């Protein structure tokens, strides 16, 4: 995937899924909103710094220091993030609210420190706007780190995916299985990994229609199992298309 496409996916994930879910919960589900806010800070930090071997605590606090410094006195990592996400509780001197509080007490005195869901959501939107500019700036440190984090493990970003599959009549599914089984069922190497295609099967997709999947095992001990739509495998191996095969029989 090209770098511009990666950045576009990251921005969409932050804006549509993360911030969108927080906004959805701010008024009526403030606890859920705060949990999501803290999770988003974790994700912001991961993509901003791209230091997979560093502890979450270090990156979280660094992000607060650099982007949300007025929250620093509250020690959000302990009093909000850890307690709320893992124990469904909060620090002793913190209160959470969804009300229209006139201000947030950010630890400037010894009184109870109030956090409002709406204000934290607004704060994260402002932080995102800043990060978005950095992501779209060529050769910026933020952009380079975000792309590096994405490539390190792109399962860490939630994006919009379109999954397409082709379905067949039962007769056509059986024909494809019979035709491609002797061609595909074999052992080979892929990305320095042992792969063995063991079978082709049909799965009911809708009444009278079936998907054909190619079933394989991966790794030295064959513990990782995977099922892939047949047309994806056909394209990968540059074989004759399923449509062409069915027209011949």
Topology:
Layout: H1 3-25, H2 30-49, H3 56-67, H4 76-87, E1 94-97, E2 113-116, H5 117-136, H6 141-152, H7 170-184, E3 187-190, E4 193-206, E5 209-218, E6 224-229, H8 230-237, H9 242-248
Parallel strand pairs: 1-2
Antiparallel strand pairs: 3-4, 4-5, 5-6
Helix pairs in contact: 1-2, 1-5, 1-6, 2-3, 2-4, 2-5, 2-6, 5-6
DSSP strand (E) fraction? 15-25%
* Total number of strands: 6
Class based on secondary structure composition and strand pairing: alpha+beta
How many helices? 9
Largest sheet: 4 strands, antiparallel
Task: Give the helix proportion (percent range).
Answer: 40-55%
Distance between the termini: 38 Å
Q: Order of strands across the widest beta sheet? A: 3-4-5-6
Question: Low-confidence spans: pLDDT under 50, at least 5 residues?
Answer: none
Please give the domain count. 2
Q: What is the average per-residue confidence, as pLDDT, rounded to a whole number?
A: 87
Radius of gyration over alpha carbons? 25 Å
Report on this structure.
- Helix content is 52%, strand content 17%.
- The chain has 249 residues and is of the alpha+beta class.
- It has two domains: 3-156, no CATH class; 170-248, no CATH class.
- The strands form two sheets. The chain has a four-stranded antiparallel sheet with strand order 3-4-5-6. Strands 1-2 form a two-stranded parallel sheet.
- A hairpin with a 2-residue loop joins strand 4 (193-206) and strand 5.
- The model has no long low-confidence stretch (mean pLDDT 87).
């Amino acid at each position: 995937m090209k770098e511009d496409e990666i950045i576009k996916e990251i921005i969409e994930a932050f804006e549509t899924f993360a911030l969108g879910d927080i906004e959805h919960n701010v008024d009526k589900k403030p606890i859920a909103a705060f949990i999501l806010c803290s999770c988003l800070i974790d994700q912001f930090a991961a993509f901003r710094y791209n230091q997979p071997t560093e502890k979450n605590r270090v990156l979280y606090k660094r992000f607060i220091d650099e982007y949300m410094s007025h929250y620093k006195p509250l020690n959000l990592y302990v009093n909000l993030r850890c307690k709320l996400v893992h124990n469904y509780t909060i620090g002793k001197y913190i209160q959470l609210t969804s009300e229209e509080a006139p201000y947030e007490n950010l630890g400037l005195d010894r009184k109870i420190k109030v956090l409002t869901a709406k204000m934290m959501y607004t704060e994260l939107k402002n932080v995102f706007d800043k990060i978005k500019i950095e992501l779209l700036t060529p050769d910026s440190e933020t952009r380079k780190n975000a792309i590096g984090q994405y490539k390190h493990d792109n399962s860490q970003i939630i994006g919009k995916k379109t999954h397409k599959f082709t379905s067949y009549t039962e007769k056509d599914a059986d024909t494809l299985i019979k035709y491609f089984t002797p061609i595909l069922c074999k052992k080979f190497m892929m990305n320095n990994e042992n792969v063995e295609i063991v079978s082709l099967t049909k799965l009911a997709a809708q009444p009278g229609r079936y998907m054909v999947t190619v079933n394989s095992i991966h790794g030295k001990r064959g513990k990782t199992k995977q099922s892939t739509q047949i047309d994806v495998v056909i394209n990968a191996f540059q074989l004759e298309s399923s449509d062409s095969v069915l027209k011949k029989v």
